[in-house]
Each structure stands twice: as structure tokens, then as C-alpha cells.
Design a protein that fits this description.
single chain; 62 residues; mainly alpha; 2 helices
Length: 62
């Protein structure tokens, strides 16, 4: 696998992680149940970490 292929894969991964974060943000804002919101925030925070990791990976292949 060459660098260009890695860039393309990481760019796709970043888009998926950002969409997942947006998904959780949307539903966190819509819900009243605090227990569910807490769970979704935890998952959303994982997505934020994933975004940071993928951005770092992209730095390596730039």
C-alpha cells in the first residue's frame, strides 16, 4: 500500500468519525433522559478521540 492510498483511507476514516460524532451530538441535544444522554456523551467522547487519532495519522502521511 502506498502513501496516497493511506491518505485516501485515513480521509475516509476521518469523515466517518466526524459523522458519528455529529450523530451523537444531534441525539444528545434531542433527548431528555439524562442516563441515555450520559451514555451517548461517553460514546461521543470516544469519537472525538478517534478524530484526533485519525488526524494524527493524516499528519504522518502528508
Amino acid at each position: 500500500m502506498n502513501i496516497e492510498m493511506l491518505r485516501k483511507e485515513f480521509t475516509g476514516m476521518l469523515a466517518l468519525e466526524e459523522r458519528a460524532k455529529a450523530f451523537y451530538d444531534h441525539y444528545i441535544d434531542q433527548l431528555d433522559d439524562q442516563e441515555v444522554k450520559t451514555t451517548l456523551r461517553s460514546i461521543r467522547d470516544d469519537e472525538i478521540m478517534h478524530i484526533a487519532i485519525v488526524k494524527k495519522l493524516l499528519e504522518y502521511v502528508q
